Amino acid sequence: MSTSGYEKIGVMVAESDATQPGTRRWRGLAPAERVTARREQLVAAGIELMGTVGAGETSMRGICRQAGLTERYFYESFPNLDALMTTVLETVVLAARDHLLDALTTAPIDRDAMFLHCVAAFTDFLTDDRRRGRIMFVECQATPALTARADELIELFTAPIALTIGAGDYRNPAPDHTDSVLNANAIFGSLAYLYRPWLTGSIPVSRERFDEHAARLLTGIALIRSGPPEPESVARERGSRESEF
């Protein structure tokens, strides 16, 4: 069969598909693409409302009004309001995690410089869209469903922080897994209570001083060790390596 014959068959199939129920394209989008687009509209509306008026003042009708969609389309993507707000929280927290992971790829090796670099990247993420800080640090505790998911997301968010800590200070024994987890969660709590008032202007501090203070805080927490002391042989070997530099 000639190439032109295949082209003719392709045109016939495309025209046939377009006439099948539920498969017609609208404004250039296939049905599945339209569902995805409407879901993204709803999530964007959730980010706007949760990040401005708060989760307590957010309703399903308000979401639909903000998104410019009917309630029918809400239930097309989400079973209830809690499910949408949880998705909003996940969207923001995972974006923050990915932003930190990207920052780590260009971070300096020096521990203090690394922490300052990551703090600056996180500050950029929050100041680029101040709704993010409210959703991450305030609205995450607004409902039982959000609180439960927030507890799970903290571990995902703090994973790159724990990685940074683990790559850090050679003057002290390396942190074991429990040290890294405890320190990373302590860092998350500390950052929440630092960023919240700074973003709202309650603490009128310059960006430069804020980042520097937060980085020093991370450094201080990262040095905390509660695990068993390392064996003397390991300590001697580590000391021998360090003396070579």
Automatic annotation (TrEMBL):
<keyword id="KW-0238">DNA-binding</keyword>
<feature type="domain" description="HTH tetR-type">
    <location>
        <begin position="36"/>
        <end position="96"/>
    </location>
</feature>
<feature type="DNA-binding region" description="H-T-H motif">
    <location>
        <begin position="59"/>
        <end position="78"/>
    </location>
</feature>
<dbReference type="InterPro" id="IPR001647">
    <property type="entry name" value="HTH_TetR"/>
</dbReference>
<dbReference type="InterPro" id="IPR009057">
    <property type="entry name" value="Homeodomain-like_sf"/>
</dbReference>
<dbReference type="InterPro" id="IPR050109">
    <property type="entry name" value="HTH-type_TetR-like_transc_reg"/>
</dbReference>
<protein>
    <submittedName>
        <fullName>TetR/AcrR family transcriptional regulator</fullName>
    </submittedName>
</protein>
<dbReference type="Pfam" id="PF00440">
    <property type="entry name" value="TetR_N"/>
</dbReference>
